Amino acid sequence: MAEAQRDKNMYLLNVNVHKDTTYITNSLEEGAMLWHERLGHLNMASLKELDAMVDGMNLKEVPLHHICEGCIKGKHQRTSFPKDGTMRASQLLEIVHIDVCGPMRTTLHGGAQYFLIFIDHFSRKTHVYLLKAKREVFEKFKQYKALVENKIGHKIKVLRFDNKG
Questions:
Q1: Cα 39 vs. chain centroid, distance in angstroms?
Q2: Is residue 43 domain-shared with residue 7, that is, in the same domain?
Q3: Which of 44, 112, 158, 162 sits CB 3.0–4.6 Å from 130 for a disulfide?
């Protein structure tokens, strides 16, 4: 059907195929399921139609209903995220996210190796504090709490963090 000759690091492909001829190999152990897989999990009705159109395919029996693990997995859908368990903030300081990042490979400004971030869920306003050690987290939280509660006039209701110590 085709012949290739190497030219340095490239292969030149010479194709000598008649336009009206279709070449398909078929052995006795190859059946409808193998062709189904080879042809990209083609449905059985189309495979049966293809068998009638192609000379030499000669599938003895094409089952219209089959069980193919790949097809079943491909049609599975992911379950949706739960809607009842998620809280949405409706006012400032209702939910505040907190995270501590570090230690950093490169020392930050003033010798800090960590940073502490607070994000208000409602406004997305962010406050960042640089820390030299993790033990400073509680002190910075007290500073943040006093700052925002005095400024806004609301108290922090929920503090969310990732529980990584």
A1: 26
A2: yes
A3: 112
- Note the pLDDT tens digit of each residue in 28-40: 335 777 777 878 8
pTM of the model: 0.48
For residue 139, the tally of other CB atoms under 10 A from its CB is 11
Q: Which residues pair with 98 in a beta bridge?
A: 118
Place of tokens 């400073």: 136
Tally of domains within the chain:
2
Cis peptide before 63, with omega less than 30 degrees from 0? no
Residue 80 lies in a domain: no
Q: Whole domain around residue 52: which residue ranges?
A: 2-75
- Beta-carbon contacts of 161 under 8 Å, excluding residues fewer than 6 positions away, are 97, 98, 99
Q: Give one word for 162, left, alpha or beta, with left for phi > 0 and alpha for psi -120 to 50.
A: alpha
